[in-house]
Amino acid sequence: MKTPFCWEPGQEEQQAATAAYYPSQSSHYLFPCSPLRQNHDASRSPGPDPSVFSSFLEQTKTIYYVAADRSGRILAFNPAFCQLVDRKAATLAGQSLWPLLTESNQQQIQHMLAKGSLETFSKRKVHLVKDHVYAITLECVLVFSENQFVLLGEEPVQDNLQSQEEIVHLNNELAVLTRENIKQRRITQQALEDLKEAQLQLIQKEKMAALGQMTAGIAHEINNPITFIQTNHELMQAEFHDLLSFINLIGDALPELRNAIPGLYSRLIQKANAIRLPHLAEALPRQMQTNLQGLTRITEIVLLLRKYIRLDEADGKECLLSEDLNATLQFLEPLCQKSQVRIVTDYQIHTPVFCYPAALNQAVSNLLTNAIQASPPGATVHLRTRLDQDHVVIEVIDQGPGIPPAIRSRIFDPFFTTKPVGEGTGLGLSLTLKIIKQHHGDIGIDETPGGGCTIRLEFPRILHS
């Protein structure tokens, strides 16, 4: 039989704080609290039915109830308290409450118990400990009787507000850190791009420097013997003409020798027939002229090489595109023959154009090389130049399979290549883009109907004043 508590009028808060929790027989919540104070005046109105508070305490999730005797042994508790301290009911019943409290709270409650005062109601903040770590702060009402005391508490509103403010503050800090992380990631990405760009420029400079030194060495080594051979050729040609004149003079005197010295005449005629003198007199001048043409061709190749590399024209200047592009085509002729691809030119610009000749030659050479390698045998690659208002346009049109859409956005990335290992460095198009940017221009790519690709270089025109 549950014994209801009796209440003083106006003590609703005390009634809630001292309501005992009486578990059912099947419940794990043990030892209901005995009445804190019996009412000896029958004329007073009894308080609310304690069963109402017992049901409330059993179902609530935010009110925490625990009762213990003067030694701290737990007598009763509600499910919310079990969940709060993360303990099963069977492990709480009959155990000491003191390990669940901080040392300061334990001393305060023991001091109140030692005073022996009854019906002491006081709101205090009680700190519960979980696994030897500070867990949560409750704002509790403490009720003391002769043999036991009750803690009835809830999380303080102020602490909740502080927790919310702290969460907002942490969220703000998290947002700041996220923005900083994004910023640092962008800085890192930009630094990586700058590093790639610097590496690309370094490779380009080293490549051009090495090629320039090699070209200068080749030109020097070839020009010296060519000059020597050309000088000797001129002397040899003059001396041959003198020798030929002497031979002709002897030929004119042969009739006289035949009558005066028949034996000498016979020997001269035999020797002339043996060495085929008439043929030599006709063939040697032709062969010497052919040698001179060969020497001239070697000289032109050296000049074309210097024009392609532009060793003395690292800065911008006006030049005729047709001359520079023809020099580039001369060096691509072996690749064209190997790939069985023909290059057809259509130059529509016949006035000087301001550019960086060495760099522009390399950019067009890169595009032509890719076009030749992408085109099947027997195909034709077109190289065109034209003016579009105030811009210079250079177009390279091939008959290859085109550029797959999946890789189109990556073809200008440094070191990206679709060629087998050892056949491509992945720097051709990236260098070409860099060169056109140096000309304050851009690169356009168009797919040709029926297959093939058109790559268009476009940059501003600056004509010679």
Walk me through this protein's architecture.
- The protein has helices at about 10-20, 50-60, 80-85, 90, 105-115, 155-260, 260-275, 275-310, 320-340, 355-375, 430-440, and strands at about 65-70, 75, 120-130, 135-145, 150-155, 315-320, 340-345, 355, 380-390, 390-400, 440-445, 455-460.
- It is α+β, with helices and mostly antiparallel strands and about 475 residues long.
- It has a 5-stranded antiparallel beta sheet. The protein has a 5-stranded mixed beta sheet with strand order 7-9-10-12-11.
- Helix 9 packs parallel to helix 10.
- The model is unreliable at about 1-45 (pLDDT under 50).
In short:
The chain has 465 residues and is α+β, with helices and mostly antiparallel strands. The chain has helices at residues 12-18, 50-59, 79-85, 89-92, 103-115, 157-260, 262-274, 277-309, 321-339, 357-374, 428-438, and strands at residues 64-69, 74-77, 122-130, 133-144, 148-154, 317-319, 342-347, 353-355, 380-388, 391-398, 442-447, 453-460. 51% of the residues lie in helices and 17% in strands.
Biggest β-sheet, characterized?
Answer: 5 strands, antiparallel
Structural class category? alpha+beta
The number of strands is 12
Question: For the largest beta sheet, what order do the strands appear in spatially?
Answer: 2-1-5-4-3
Taken from the alpha-carbon principal axes, the silhouette is rod-shaped
Q: Return the average pLDDT rounded to an integer.
A: 76
Percent helix: 40-55%
Rg (CA only) = 53 Å
- Low-pLDDT runs of 5+ residues are 1-45
